[in-house]
Design a protein that fits this description.
By secondary structure, the chain is mainly beta. It has two helices and eleven strands, in the order βββββββββαββα.
């Protein structure tokens, strides 16, 4: 069994390293880990389809892709299952070699600690790892609080049935629990 990250690896040996060269791929990635958020994700074993174009540029390989997947989850109000078709794009530059400077200067400790610096993707020989860009594209498109429809009323808090399937006059008798102790007492009513 391969590691989950290897599913996303692509060998680019067929792509010449001359600027302007291009190669297209159609990938069907069977994922080994769910991709998503807690309530909504592309489940294990599902296929993520990627139409990928790789272009050689001076600094490395520019990967542009169209990503298709189906995420599954449940409505946060009524708990009905939900399927959401995802169609996202990604574009990342994979550098040929690590770069230790920007604009000809040596990286300082401040640069390394700066969280605003753009994350660089590096090639490992001829291999590019598409996991991070694909995960980012899919996860960022998922709803944090998925709904089966925007007007979902959820469940009745008393009986747990779906409000949409209950009659309009559905109600439960609410008895103040402080009066429960008096319920067992039998008060005789005497006529006056």
């Amino acid at each position: 069994m391969s590691r989950p990250g290897r599913v996303y690896e692509l060998n680019t040996y067929e792509l010449p390293r001359r600027a302007g060269e291009m190669k297209e791929y159609k990938l069907d990635l069977e994922i080994l880990e769910r991709v998503g958020v807690e309530l909504m994700a592309v489940p294990v074993g599902e296929i993520i389809e990627v139409d990928l174009r790789l272009e050689s540029v001076t600094e490395g390989i520019l990967a542009t892709g169209q990503i298709y997947a189906v995420a599954k989850g449940e409505c946060i109000r009524c708990l009905d299952p939900i399927e959401l078709e995802l169609n996202r794009t990604m574009q990342e530059l994979y550098r040929y070699e690590p770069t230790n400077n920007r604009g000809g200067r040596k990286k300082s400790r401040e640069d390394e600690e700066d969280l605003d610096l753009e994350e660089e993707f590096m090639m490992e020989g001829d291999i590019i790892n598409l996991e991070t860009p694909i995960r980012d594209a899919l996860v960022l498109s998922l709803p944090v609080n998925p709904l089966c429809n925007p007007d979902c009323l959820g469940l009745c808090p008393e009986c747990g049935e779906k409000w949409a399937s209950l009659p309009e006059d559905h109600a439960h008798e609410l008895v103040d629990p402080r009066w429960n102790a008096l319920g067992g007492l039998d008060f005789p009513i005497e006529p006056k």
